[in-house]
Amino acid sequence: MQEERKKHLKNLALWTWSWVATLAVATFGPVLIWDGHLTLTLFAILTNLVNGVLMILANRKLFNHYDELERKIHLESLALTLGLTVVVGLAYSLLDQTNVIPFDAEISVLVLFIGLNYMITLLINRKRYS
Amino acid sequence: MKNRVRELRKLKGLTQEQLAEVIGVSRQTINAIEKEKFDPSLPTAFKMSKLFDLAIEDFFLFEDLK
Known about the structure:
- The complex is a heterodimer.
- By secondary structure, chain A is mainly α.
- Chain A has helices at residues 2-32, 38-65, 68-97, 107-128.
- Chain A has 2 domains: 1-65; 67-130.
- Chain A is built from 4 helices and no strands.
- By secondary structure, chain B is mostly helical.
- Chain B has a single domain (2-52), classed as 434 Repressor (Amino-terminal Domain), CATH 1.10.260.
- Chain B has 5 helices and 2 strands, in the order E-H-H-H-H-H-E.
- Chain B has helices at residues 5-11, 16-23, 27-34, 42-52, 56-59; strands at residues 2-3, 60-61.
- In chain B, helix 2 (16-23) crosses helix 3.
- Chain B is globular, with a radius of gyration of 11 Å.
- The chains are: A mainly alpha, B mainly alpha.
- The A-B interface holds A 1, 67-70, 72, 126, 128-130 and B 21, 24-26, 28-29, 31-32, 37-38, 40-41, 44.
């Protein structure tokens, strides 16, 4: 069981790093490497998209490998993260629309919020069942 | 739900890690079941029943709230 877990984790780590790397290429490539060449930009974005799908599939494989308690912990964390993301995300967007904040609401802030929120709720839920 | 999993595991001379391996769950899950923080699924309860050679209701004690 442990060996299989390691295999799934390694696979997910590989696809995550690969996705991050292709995202970096798709973001900075058009400006720094190929000077806005449309075909190359589309190819970079498509490669990033395919990597993202493969990362999601690797995550699903890991999730299906979890036992019943681990799934419960992850599902509770995901439910909280989803709810908070919708509520906080829309409030953040409203702050921008009503010019309460002097800067644009960036999607990257929301992605960071999702990551941090998922980690924190996961830690709390793990503690609850330990 | 109250249970006798810890007692029966010790009677069998198994560690949490060994019981987890036999049942096919993580050690954390066995720990949570023993501490009565988590109720296992039916397949897990049946696997335990087979291992301990007892009926499920002999080691998972259902308390009717009525």
